[in-house]
Sequence to fold (297 residues):
Amino acid sequence: MDSLGSIAMFVQVADSGSFSATARQLGLSSSAVGKSVARMEARLGARLFRRSTRHLSLTAEGEQFLARCRRILAEVEAAEQELSVSSKGPSGRLRISLPRYSGLFHEVMLQFMRAYPAIELDLDFSDGLVNVISDGYDAVVRTGALEDSGLTRRRLCGFRRLLVAAPSYLELFGRPALPSELAKHVCLHYRFPATGRLERWPLAADEVPSVNGLVCNSVEMRVFLAVQGQGIAYLPAFTVERELAAGQLVGLLDEYTQESASFWVLWPSSSHLPSRLRVFIDFLVEKLENGGPETRT
Fold:
């Protein structure tokens, strides 16, 4: 197989239409250029040029080979540019979709910005379904069961959901001893924006209690109302860490809330992953996989 230098010389001859012109550009003799092309033709077993004393033109095989050679040289140039950029560190813009309540990711994003100041983050907070490719995202972070969407994915961390209430609420209404008793309490429910369904609570029948409290799609509102003694909420453990530590909320029916869920980062499948996206994904995994909320209860 010819070297890249021979391929580049062939492309230059095709562009100039002359052995002598190419020779002048490269500082070689016309015979050296002609012999290089002849060796390539012998190796390929195909004639690339039609030669005459006054004219040089590509054969059909030469046209086909030229198109392939241009692609090869373009790939080499792109690889060189990428290496040149990577030697200075990843840079560019990343558009990322994160869950609307992303308190878990605040510190991680801050650390990433300090570690990679040349990467510009465009963060979109939403609990709705997004199409990573058509909506123009580089990656999305989501939780729950994931369909086989053709996206590449990596697990970030696991977490539990807890039933919580304020001591003031329990003083008034009592502490439920069984999941079935939740039907008698004021419950602060979450409605999924994408489906309109209520989040499942940890009941034996896999049902949510009757709606006799509040329904909303805001984690922050349910945390606030629970702290104010307005009802029982089913919340990710990492969203109520401070309130539990401060005694503003207490956990309920802990033996029934052992199920865990996971956060995933997903991005379009590609054989070429930009360095800025690769370091972003690796950074999230490093910071959350071992230090994530799975151990926070």
